[in-house]
Amino acid sequence: MDKKVKNTQGKNRQGVSRDPRLWVQVIVAAVTNGYALGFLKGKIYTGPLKNICVPGLNCYSCPGALGSCPIGSLQAVLGARNFRFSFYLLGFFMVIGAIFGRFVCGWLCPFGLIQDLLHKIPFPFKRKNLPGHRLLVYLKYVVLVVMVILLPLVATDFLGQGRPWFCQYLCPSGTLLAGIPLTLTNEPLRAAAGFLFQWKLLILIVCVVGAIAYYRPFCKYLCPLGAVYGLFHPIAFYRYEVDEEKCTRCGKCQRVCKMDIPVWKEPNSRECIRCGACVRACPTCAVHRKPAGKGTRADQNDTE
Question: Are strands 287-291 and 238-242 parallel, antiparallel or unpaired?
Fold first, then answer.
């Protein structure tokens, strides 16, 4: 084996223990939820930064949130009586999706971080996927179309106002980051908490237990934001490539991939969260990160 390849493999093996992803996730979560006064007083920050969306699923109502969740903002616009379209949100999804794709899910989403930490908890068995995984991955697109887009537009009250159906009835991130902290610090809100809060709490418990046993079940099967970003993977600026000359199709990339993607065959799958495990684990260094528009390593070598 070529000496250069051996050295690179050694660096890859060492790099596994020095993966910076967790630290990036923690820093991003701390910065985007950095309004400490909100947690102390149980009040939501309403300053000018709330007009800006953060990339990940980060509830607007979280006491520490300094920005807005793009899914919550989209539902607010679609459900508003006088508005049905937002150029800002359309541009936000296009820019973030076209540049990063689901890199946001793997590195910048606070609820993704929570699921990663939960999966580190010891459990009698650990699995990558739920039974029926191949069909269940499409459920998040149903959630996106029905709960995020259609219901706020169609199911309106007598004033023509729609509800934020996903945020109100399903989102576990909102329950964990906003519902629980606010009810703990706000006596009137705690007294008013009824069936809806109990329902959301049940969904959160299911997601928490599920995340301990299975890797990121909410991201894989329910998250509408992941569905949006996944649609951009074929054109995203940040992408992976596989060097066909180096790849032996050994399958190690899929074995280390917690999203269970055959990276050697689908390096830019809509399910990929760009964690980088396949890049570090590849024994022949065949998997690379590259900006879109640049040729493959093999193409570059041919021109040199």
Answer: antiparallel
